[in-house]
Amino acid sequence: MEGDTKPWGYRWRSSRLLVVSSITVALFAETFLYGFLAPILPYMLEERLKIDPSETQNYTTALLTSHGFIGLVSAPIIAHIAEKTPSQKTPLLFSLAGCFVGTLMLAFAKSVWVLFVGRILQSTAGAATWVVGFALLANNVDKKNLGKSMGMAMSFVTAGMVGGPTVSGALLQLFGYWTAWSFPLVVLVLDIIARLVMIEPGRRSSATPSKSSNASTPNNEEAPAETTALLSDPSLDACPVEIKQDLKQKYYKAMLSDPRVLTALANVVFTSSLMAGVSNTLPVHLREAFGWESLLVSMMFFCLQVPNIVLSGPSGWLRDKIGLRGPTVFGWATMVPLLILLGMPGDPNFPWAGGDAAGKPIFTTSLFGLGSVLPLVRGVGAVQLAYVVKELEATDPVVFESNRSNLRAFSMTEVGYSLGMMIGPLLTGSLFEAVGFFYMTVGLATICFIQAVLSWFWLDVNPPPQAADELDGQEDA
């Protein structure tokens, strides 16, 4: 019987809920491992690798910049390979293996080159997770709920970002180096379980053909259902290579000539630059300004990221209800004074903001405020790209075939994210060394103001529910 061919637990293992949950666990693991290194890195460099403390910031900048650079280079390659791979579970599992090996190399590193190779493996694996994971997410969520779903996914991303540095700094100071590194291995085991249990949407067509396909197809043949494999389109696969290349060029030309897409990508670059830049300089600045060690440094990461966990879901709901433009502009504009205020404690030009009585409360409050408005801008680029792609799919289904277009769109998102991860540490590290932490925050505030202006002119508002329902109906048909 046909039911006998279904894998164990097929119904719940292939459900949208489990697919989205598996993707969010993967994103959590990737961001957890990225943030995990920040508070523990000075100890690794100075105590285990015997690097001079005066060089700690330079090595931190180089390591975080290389992470962004590798992600920038590997994302298009990964997207190209994923297009040729029938099963999206395979690249996700390969990325997990690379991440596991890279994490072990970081933990056991006794030389700088091993440290960099481990970080490169983690970065490559992270790029695969973001590109394939967000493409799967976009293909399994209706447009009218996309902002909310992206917001929930970003909540897990934020949980990883806050959990990583908070756990590493606390465990290092309270229990030691190897206890700290045991925690990421637990996270990776959970990621393994989630990825192995999930049955990707592309497998449904072979197990549960639709009624319409049964009516028009012999019983011994498999007909493509509405949930065709993520990257399979037989009519396009049969095209000559020249036609495929021409369609791909038309796709990227149409996307990159759209100011909405460029604004979305700028949002991705600026957001990741801001987050990576702050993570790059925060441990060294807090040690110099207040004499804080890893535990208190990790608490500052906690203050920055915890509001993200609470507010990412509501922020996504707000974008679904009133559109992208208003919340995003407000978020970027509010960050300008918060960043300037963040840089004042510990700077000799602002003696009123110095000392324990004023400096520490000002710094902590500003950081908490910054974390509270970050959910308004994080994830906006991915949502905007998904909106544009779904709109263009309806107008030009040949160039914007639904499955490949999502994968390519989120490959562009990952390139922008990795570019920001490279620019952020490089920019903040250079400014921190040259002009100090305050003027570094002024530079970041300027970037936020520029993005607020761009968002005001070019970000879309969410289409009305009836328009979203019509588009969903076209897709289901």
From TrEMBL:
Region named Disordered: 204-229
Keyword Ligase among record annotations: no
Keyword terms of this UniProt record: Membrane, Transmembrane, Transmembrane helix, Transport
Name of the protein in question: Tetracycline resistance protein TetA/multidrug resistance protein MdtG
InterPro entries per record: MFS, MFS_dom, MFS_trans_sf, MFS_Vesicular_Transporter, Tet-R_TetA/multi-R_MdtG-like
Gene3D superfamilies in the record: MFS general substrate transporter like domains
Regions of compositional bias (Low complexity) in chain numbering: 204-219
Keyword Iron assigned: no
Gene Ontology cellular-component annotations: membrane
Membership in a protein family: Belongs to the major facilitator superfamily. Vesicular transporter family.
